[in-house]
Specification:
single chain, alpha+beta, 5-stranded antiparallel β-sheet
Length: 401
């Protein structure tokens, strides 16, 4: 696709990042992977590997300088996005503004940005200190959401209603925060599914959105997604309102190019609340699923954008068929004995990657860091898709002991 090989630095080599490493390799590029974990699967695919933390911006900058890279990117991992922008600005490589990336990766900064510019936003405040948080908790309408300001994948999130629950929820969120800061915000009652999908910006315009309905397991943490499905059943009226609001935010942020992971809800009055605009592709195989559903390869476009290559051919395409992602997980902690897929679900499975072997101790699913495997499924109808993904415990049995 390109006339010459380019060097691209990938921050992270986890299972969810293999798709983009493979994509860049297939396009003929020289791929360098940084990851603090020497056992990451991405290093086996890369041309070059460095055991460097992807959130250590000076260490990553040193690798980028010595390798004389042409582009840098992160895929499906929020915390490294500011490092991408920092390094790219230092080396005059394609990127979005560092300040804007910081706003999108910090819930406290993002909520302040939304408030300043008149978006719908829950009442919220962020704290380093529990005692200060208690004062705000006494004033705010209950229930509230307690979250780390700087982590994705719904890790560290709790919904609470009573002061007796605050200390535990605060410390839990704090344990997942690099900044060691916690946001407490008003709970907004949504109508229908929460939307969790990917978008892509070209020359400042949101040219593609793959909005998916987000699914949860009510027997685990009800705020951690276990799947996303397309087409969304949300009325197009609300989807367009969301696109308009997201575009307004991106214009204010001087966003130029690249992938976004978008989460929003619609409340009982029909108002749009943007929860997240992550400056990277979604996890949980969302881009892979959207490629099957729409034919649009956001993974390839992400590589091209990082290298400053032309992305003007990207256009909006709607899903053709019914597809979903699904995160295999356990509702109990214990030693994994077996994962059983019933005949009723086997025919729907398009792709499956297991991450954990039997005999391994696994934790009850409470965040994306406790994923046992990931899959993409195809269904014959929206009704079949929603029935199965919202009742997957009937079709996939994770046995622990």
């Amino acid at each position: 696709m390109q006339s010459q090989q380019k060097k691209v630095l990938m921050l992270g080599g986890s299972y969810f990042q293999l798709s983009i490493i493979k994509c860049a390799k297939e396009a003929g590029h020289y791929v360098i992977v940084c990851d603090y974990n020497p056992n990451n699967p991405g290093r086996e695919l890369a041309d070059e590997y460095h055991e460097v933390s992807v959130i250590d911006r000076e260490a990553v900058l040193d690798v980028a300088k010595s390798a004389e890279i042409d582009g840098i990117l992160v895929y499906a991992f929020d915390p490294a996005a500011p490092v991408v922008a920092y390094v790219a600005e230092k080396l005059n490589l394609p990127t979005n503004p560092y300040e804007s990336v910081m706003i999108l990766t910090r819930k406290d900064l993002f909520r302040a940005f939304l408030t300043e510019h008149g978006f719908n936003v829950p009442q919220s405040c962020s704290y380093y200190n529990l005692d200060q948080a208690k004062k705000f908790f006494a004033q705010i309408k209950k229930p509230v959401m307690v979250k780390p300001v700087d982590n994705a994948g719904s890790k560290g999130v709790r919904k609470i209603s009573d002061i007796s629950e605050l200390e535990s929820a605060f410390n839990y969120a704090l344990s997942y925060s690099t900044e060691k800061k916690v946001v407490i915000e008003e709970f907004i009652q949504r109508v229908g599914y929460q939307i969790d999908g990917d978008g892509f910006v070209v020359d400042g315009k949101l040219v593609f959105t793959g909005f998916a309905d987000q699914h949860i397991d009510k027997y685990c943490n009800p705020y951690v997604p276990i799947g996303e499905s397309v087409p969304s059943i949300q009325p197009e009226e609300f989807q367009q309102k969301a696109r308009d609001e997201i575009q307004r935010a991106l214009t204010l942020l001087n966003w130029r190019n690249g992938a976004l992971n978008i989460e929003y809800i619609v409340d009982e009055r029909g108002d749009i609340y943007i929860l997240e605009i992550g400056p990277r592709n979604g996890g949980n195989l969302i881009p892979d699923m959207l490629k099957l559903a729409t034919g649009v390869d956001l993974i390839q476009y992400t590589v091209n954008a990082a290298l400053g290559l032309d992305c003007s051919s990207l256009k909006m395409e709607s899903p053709q068929g019914c597809y979903s992602t699904y995160i295999v997980h356990s509702t109990t902690s214990g030693v994994l004995k077996e994962i059983i897929f019933t005949d009723e679900i086997r025919s729907n499975i398009v792709y499956y990657q297991g991450f954990v072997q039997p005999g391994t101790y696994v934790e009850r699913f409470d965040g994306s860091d406790r994923t046992l495997g990931a899959m993409i499924l195809k269904f014959s109808s929206v009704d079949e898709m929603l029935e199965k993904i919202d009742n997957m415990g009937l079709y996939i049995h994770v046995i622990t002991g």
